[in-house]
Design a protein that fits this description.
It is a multi-pass membrane protein. This is Oligosaccharide flippase family protein. InterPro entries: Poly_Biosynth_Transport (IPR050833). This protein is mainly alpha-helical. The model is unreliable at about 1-5 (pLDDT under 50). The protein has 22 helices and no strands. The two termini are about 35 Å apart.
Amino acid sequence: MGIVQRQGLRNTIISYIGLALGFVSTALVLPNFLEPQQLGVTATLASVATLYAQIAAFGFASVGIRFFPYFRHPESGHRGFLPLLVGVPLLGFAVVTALYFLGEPLLLPWYGRDAPLLAPYYTWGAVLAFFTMLYSVQDAYLKALYHTAFSSFVQDILLRVLIVAGAFLFGLGYLSFTGYVLWFVGVNSALALLLTGYVAAIGELHWRPTRQVLAVRPLREMLGMGAFTLLGSLSGSIILYIDTLMVGAQVSVAAAGIYVVASNISTALAIPARSLNKIAFPLLADYWKQQDLPRMADFYRRATRLNTLLGCFLFLGISLNLDFIYSLMRNARYAEGTVVVLLLLGSKLFDGITGVNGLMVVTSPRYRYDLIFNVSLAVLTILLNGLLIPRLGMVGAAVAACVAQVSINVARTWFVWHSYRMQPFTWRIPLILGIAAVAGVAGWLMPTLASSLLTMLLRSTVLTVAYATLILATKSSPEATLFLEKLRARFSEK
């Protein structure tokens, strides 16, 4: 097995463990140690640092992956590529940092009465942004070298374990809240330094600049590529983080903490789609290369059917048991995010039902349109948040996310159909939705028992049996039918 296959297998295993660990830690563990206001402070700090770091890096993480093959030359230290890859973001960081501190009198007042909560950590936001940027650039360098498993491990597993450890120390009284925030910043910073150590350990830490680096590819070309990718990556980050920032600024930092927990609960629904996308990306790229549009269209439909099947089941499983999930949190205030969870679940369900339309666009010959869609989604999200949060509070942010996601997915689906005459829907999709509605009603009609755990088990059992039985009876999903029949046969043999 070659290095790419080995690293790919390790990354897949790590990503699945990381997704599960991330859900458990951020949705269930942290809310039991941190008050909504405290969780809102750390979430705001992380969101600001991520956007800050991306602007400063000027898209050079993607530049590293895109242009490294032209510089690859182990004997000369890759012609001084690493100093260039790090140097441009460092210059960008100096500029953005100057603006960040000059803008403090303008930025903090956005948070009104909560500004004093964030003010002590304003400088630490710059520290966190610096190490976030350093991590992303080194991660890109390792991807270009085909060494990706270690960085995935420290980001997806080690970081989450350390943050949970800090929460335990805070909960047990060994850390003050300020100490926990510094722990949060410290472990994120340490991971960047750990990555530097790993680069050195594999013999690829070539810090010495060379003049020949500017002769390999024009710097203007790399900067142009960086600017193009910056728009795309920044749009993606805005979509992920702007709602937290705007809820904190327009409602309260505590509301931002409640919103973050609700958002983390809803991410469980996105796990199957993310897993499928890891497989779909290279497969679709290969279909485009071969111009095998019939097989691509078939995959498009099957992926949509599978996402609908799993998405509906998870949507109902989480929705019916939200009371139980929130009962696991000691602070009852987090349950104020119930409506937010339901709206975000609906948003992610629609994203799954519309299939892999985003990947269809980004792997197609008209891939540049993906940037238009991402920028449009980011702008629409900001505008809707600005319109709805003052009226509906954090629920307004969830409504904005839902409307924006539905709108952009309808546009992407139309674009794929208009450009290539491929659409993901068959008669089985409304049938699965109907089955989900029936199974959901069956689970909802179950009585509430004295124990929330028993209620959750009863509803989940009824939902699972009803859903699986109807899927088998109607043969609405051939893949699921085959799997369930094999599973039933195996239990029958026993």
